[in-house]
Amino acid sequence: MRLSCEVNGERYQIDGVWEGESLLYVLRERLGLYGSKNACEQGECGSCSVYLDGVLVCSCLVLAGQAEGRRIVTVEGISGGEGLHPVQEAFVEAGAVQCGFCTPGLIVATHDLLFRNPHPTDAEIREALAGNLCRCTGYEKILDAVRLAAERA
Amino acid sequence: MEFMQPLDWEEALEIKAAHPEARPIFGGTDVMVELNFGRERPEVLMDLTRVPELREWGEEDGRLRVGAGVTYTRIIEELKERLPGLAMASRTVGSPQIRNRGTVGGNLGTASPAGDALPPLYVSGAEVEVASVRGVRRIPVEEFVRGPKRNALREDELILSFLLPGARGPQQYAKIGPRNAMVIAVCSLGLALDPERRELGVCIGSAGPTPFRAREAEGFIRGVLEEGGLWESRSEIGESALARFGELVAGAARPISDVRGTAEYRRHAVAVLARRVLRWAWEEYREGR
């Protein structure tokens, strides 16, 4: 089938989409946007987090056809330009990255958190990022990065 | 595989009548897992996210009528005053990403004994509204959920909404799991107090083939509150009564052993949950909240 949607501000018409495939598959395999990671495919790890019409979702749990006519923003589009978004800068500065696999999802989830709640408490950060798993960092530097991004906002 | 996307409720029912095998999908938090892992290959997938009727909620004859497609996030944000027990249970579902997509309608459709939204519906005597081109049926939730992953939907029917009274008193929900998020309940417990009617409801989740009310425990505590004049005096419920209440709830449980916990652990845990949850709700009542 054909899918029409907007990704990171650009309109796409994608042909040959299988009816049962996920938005994540469309983003990675059909549009070459490899930022959103494919890990658990069951909404457990958050590494495929994107915005769907401004709502934070796991793109592995969105059926491609559900994205018809919708606006999607991935980690590639989060800064809205060439440079890094302040959330991304904070992750770099705080060293909140090891293998990097969870990072794109955490960037998008943090972006969503700080948009809704610019000055979150530690408990609020933990709750907001509870759906994003990191197996390297032990999360401390990720929390530092979120606090840093919040301070600068 | 065919993909269909009705734009209103009438069209959705027509599609379901013409294609009884059509698999409805809304938030996708269950259905997409089945698709991603190749466990299911439905002939027809019917996306219901464009059906406005499913996303609405409102009041109807003194009850709330909530569309099956209202997400957990919206229940938490929009209904926490009216449905505190359901909002509390919704907060324990998955993560923000999951709560932004998942719906109570999905919980009813999947009919898992561990569905977090179910105990709050049971304790409030909720009805599930289902429809087909033949008409509408309203089914008490206890009759709607038939067994593990089985419900009372006929092949041409879809879940439209659920109806229940707004909270008449304190409501609580608690569940056991290895962490605070992303947890499928090892076991869970919902409780609602109705001070005006001198009633209460207790429902055990994830410790039997379906969620179910612990009626003997309800009757016992109703008697304790009545005899002791506790509704009037708002004094504490004694430790021995709380312990007996926990025992009765545990006695009602019909748990199995599986990957999430043993039957023995579940039986123990529901007793602990029952005591705690009743104490919390009663504290709220005593403080007049």
TrEMBL record, chain A:
<keyword id="KW-0001">2Fe-2S</keyword>
<keyword id="KW-0479">Metal-binding</keyword>
<dbReference type="InterPro" id="IPR001041">
    <property type="entry name" value="2Fe-2S_ferredoxin-type"/>
</dbReference>
<dbReference type="InterPro" id="IPR002888">
    <property type="entry name" value="2Fe-2S-bd"/>
</dbReference>
<keyword id="KW-0408">Iron</keyword>
<feature type="domain" description="2Fe-2S ferredoxin-type">
    <location>
        <begin position="1"/>
        <end position="78"/>
    </location>
</feature>
<dbReference type="GO" id="GO:0016491">
    <property type="term" value="F:oxidoreductase activity"/>
</dbReference>
<protein>
    <submittedName>
        <fullName>Carbon-monoxide dehydrogenase small subunit</fullName>
    </submittedName>
</protein>
<dbReference type="InterPro" id="IPR036884">
    <property type="entry name" value="2Fe-2S-bd_dom_sf"/>
</dbReference>
<dbReference type="InterPro" id="IPR036010">
    <property type="entry name" value="2Fe-2S_ferredoxin-like_sf"/>
</dbReference>
<dbReference type="Pfam" id="PF01799">
    <property type="entry name" value="Fer2_2"/>
</dbReference>
<keyword id="KW-0560">Oxidoreductase</keyword>
<keyword id="KW-0411">Iron-sulfur</keyword>
<dbReference type="GO" id="GO:0051537">
    <property type="term" value="F:2 iron, 2 sulfur cluster binding"/>
</dbReference>
<dbReference type="InterPro" id="IPR006058">
    <property type="entry name" value="2Fe2S_fd_BS"/>
</dbReference>
<dbReference type="GO" id="GO:0046872">
    <property type="term" value="F:metal ion binding"/>
</dbReference>
<dbReference type="InterPro" id="IPR051452">
    <property type="entry name" value="Diverse_Oxidoreductases"/>
</dbReference>
<dbReference type="InterPro" id="IPR012675">
    <property type="entry name" value="Beta-grasp_dom_sf"/>
</dbReference>
<dbReference type="Pfam" id="PF00111">
    <property type="entry name" value="Fer2"/>
</dbReference>
